[in-house]
C-alpha cells in the first residue's frame, strides 16, 4: 500500500479559489450584475502581495477590500488579480495572488468562502495538477485493513439536510 494520502483539503481550497477567480473574471469582463459586490480578505504578509506602503503599515497582517462601486482596471489571470481602488479619494493599485486570499463574501446573496492562506503548502494555484496526479496514484486499501480505522473520516450528509 502507498504511503500517499489524498490531499482533499488542498484540492478543495484550489476548487474554492477557482470559484473566486471565475467570479472576478466575469466581473472584469461584464461588471458586477445587480446588487453583487465582494468583500475580499487577504494576507498582507504574503510575499507576492503588492499594496502601497501606507496600507501595508496600516494593515500589517490582513486587509479586507470591497469591490463594488469605486474600482477600476480589474485584471484576473490564473494566479492573481489586480485592481485599482479608491482610498481617501486616491486611486491605489493592488496586486493580490489568489493563494493570499483568506476570505470572500458576497453579501447580496449571503455567500462566503474561507481559505487557509497561511498554510505553508498553499503556495500556488499551479499545485493542483500535481495534487490530482498524486491522488490518482493511490491504490485501494488491502482487504486486511480494518474498516473501523477510517470511520472518523466519513461525513453523513443527513446531518446537513433540512428536515
What characteristics describe this protein?
alpha+beta, three-stranded antiparallel β-sheet, disordered C terminus
Note down, in words, how this protein is organized.
The chain is an alpha+beta fold and 163 residues long. The protein has one domain (8-160): SH3 type barrels, CATH 2.30.30. The protein has three helices and seven strands; from the N terminus they run H-E-H-E-E-E-E-E-E-H. The strands form two sheets. A four-stranded antiparallel β-sheet has the order 2-1-6-7, covered by helices on one side. Strands 3-4-5 form a three-stranded antiparallel β-sheet. The longest helix is centred in the first third of the chain and has 23 residues, at 8-30. The radius of gyration is 19 Å and the shape is globular.
Gross morphology: globular
CATH superfamily: SspB-like
Could you describe the largest sheet, including whether it forms a barrel? 4 strands, antiparallel
First CA to last CA: what distance? 41 Å
Q: Kindly state the number of beta strands.
A: 7
Beta-strand content bin: 25-35%
Mean pLDDT over the full residue set: 78
Count of DSSP H/I helices: 3
CATH topology: SH3 type barrels
Helix content: 10-25%
Helices and strands, in order, run as HEHEEEEEEH
Task: Compute the number of structural domains.
Answer: 1
| Spans of at least 5 consecutive residues with low confidence | 119-163
The radius of gyration computed from the alpha-carbon positions, rounded to a whole number of angstroms, is 19 Å
Architecture, according to CATH?
Roll
- Helix- and strand-based class? alpha+beta
- CATH class bucket: Mainly Beta
Reading side by side through the largest sheet, how are the strands ordered?
2-1-6-7
